[in-house]
Amino acid sequence: MANIVFIATSIDGYIADKEGGLDWLHSVPNPDNIDMGFAPLMDRVDALVMGRNTLETVLSFDVDWPYSKPVFVLSNTMKEVPNGYQDKVFLVQGDLTEVVADLNSKGYQDLYIDGGVTIQNFLKQELVDELTITTIPVLLGGGIKLFGELEQMQSYQLIESKVYLETIVQNHFKRMG
Ligand SMILES: NC(=O)c1ccc[n+]([C@@H]2O[C@H](COP(=O)([O-])OP(=O)(O)OC[C@H]3O[C@@H](n4cnc5c(N)ncnc54)[C@H](OP(=O)(O)O)[C@@H]3O)[C@@H](O)[C@H]2O)c1
Question: What separation, in Å, do the N-terminal and C-terminal C-alpha atoms of the chain show?
Fold first, then answer.
């Protein structure tokens, strides 16, 4: 059972720029469209848990639905799943420990956790087991931060470090203890 964060950040630790944009994710030419671990992750997890803002960002892209597993969207304001996604997206809310326990009891053991506020809240509640951070070599100077404050230090061990396209570093950490 693992709660897994897999996310790209700028060197200065932002996951979206000042306008909420993600164009900088594609600032390094990737002619062969290598996926940097996304497909294996999608194979491994049983479901995703993401914040409502991240769902809305994904829906605003003119691309095919990128997830092959059920997506549980955290929201207190979204009352209905957007049309056409009823078999893919499910709304959840409340205490994260309970949300995770409920999903685990339904057989969703390995969860891919996504979204800025969502990741910060999972970290605050000590609910993150693995962190894969892909660092795009840009400084955004502001935007949505990946990390926020924590009550206390958390220690991780480096499992693997990879370099993609000679410039993008991806570090895979596991929580210790
Ligand atoms: N760089 C990357 O790889 C990457 C990856 C993912 C996202 N992003 C970017 O990050 C941005 C989105 O992040 P974000 O920080 O805005 O937030 P987010 O985590 O995607 O969404 C936050 C929202 O989730 C809901 N929520 C969170 N915890 C909840 C709980 N326990 N119960 C009920 N609802 C809960 C709330 O929705 P309500 O307001 O509806 O209650 C909250 O406003 C987007 O710009 C996206 O593009 C970047």
Answer: 15
Q: Tell me which long-range contacts 30-35 makes (C-beta under 8 A, separation of at least 24).
A: 30/165, 34/164, 34/165
Q: pLDDT per residue over 91-111, tens digit each?
A: 999 999 999 999 999 999 999
Question: Would the CB of 16 count as within 6 Å of ligand 1?
Answer: yes
Cα 33 from Cα 115, distance rounded (Å): 23
How many angstroms does the Cα of residue 53 sit away from the middle of ligand 1?
4
Q: What pTM was computed for the model?
A: 0.97
Torsion of CA 28, 33, 36, 38, to 10 degrees: 130
32 contacts 159 by C-beta, under 8 angstroms: no
d(CA 80, CA 91): 8
Whether 133 is in the pocket of ligand 1, judged by its Cβ within 6 Å, is: no
Q: Which of 53, 59, 63, 95 to mutate to test the pocket of ligand 1 (most atoms within 8 A of CB)?
A: 53
Q: Does 42 score more than 90 pLDDT?
A: yes
Going from the Cα of 120 to the center of ligand 1, the distance in angstroms, rounded, reads 10
Is the CB–ligand 1 distance for residue 135 below 6 Å?
Answer: no
